[in-house]
Amino acid sequence: MTRVLVGITGASGVLYGVRLVERLLDEDIATEVIVSRPARRVLAIEHDRPGDPREWLAGRAGNAPVFHDDGDLAGLPASGSSAPDAMLVAPCSMGTAARIAAGLSGTLIERAADVMLKERRPLVLVPRETPFSTLHLRNLHELSTLGARIVPAMPAFYFRPKSMEELVEFVVDRALQAAGLGLPLRHPWRGAEAEEP
């Protein structure tokens, strides 16, 4: 069975990570989650979801992911012998991106990402920052050269979204596509004529 690890860091846009986990669970994919302490703070600020995500993060059928503590550097994702099939970090803070690019592993999210790079398994980062500084761009370029897929949280508008949820789903779909999981895109480009009202 395919195993996917989702790291949720403390950048604005934590909802991307939440919807990513929910989508994976809805698709009946074995999902593991690491939520950083700053991400929990952002959840409380942006979405009024304080407390432990273990209490509310689940798929529509009620299935729950396996959670790992971000401070547990001995957790399963810290070893290449138990690495998941793919890892996504959404959103990926610029601090997290910098530490992964430098090979620093002070948290389980950073160590797991390092494992994915060394094992040459799919690692997808969804940076949520604007504007990017030159340093941010350098770090993202370095990560790309190391094999990570960079999927910025940049939704499209060609499908004429009607809600914020649709914009979030577009980015989630693109991240999942970059991870090579073979899940269907909900808003693929069908050509200009097909998008006419």
What does this structure look like?
Helices cover 36% and strands 15% of the residues. It has 6 helices and 6 strands, in the order E-H-E-H-E-E-H-H-E-H-E-H. The protein is globular. The mean pLDDT is 93. Helix 2 links the parallel strand 2 and strand 3. It has 197 residues and is of the alpha/beta class.
Q: Note the total helix count.
A: 6
CATH class: Alpha Beta
What's the pLDDT, averaged over the residues?
93
- Fraction of residues in helices? 25-40%
Question: Main traits of this protein?
Answer:
197 residues; alpha/beta; Rossmann fold; six-stranded parallel β-sheet; globular
Task: Give the arrangement of secondary structure elements.
Elements: E1 3-8, H1 14-26, E2 30-35, H2 37-47, E3 66-68, E4 86-92, H3 94-101, H4 108-118, E5 123-127, H5 134-145, E6 149-150, H6 164-178
Parallel strand pairs: 1-2, 1-4, 2-3, 4-5, 5-6
In short:
This protein has 197 residues and is an alpha/beta fold. Helices cover 36% and strands 15% of the residues.
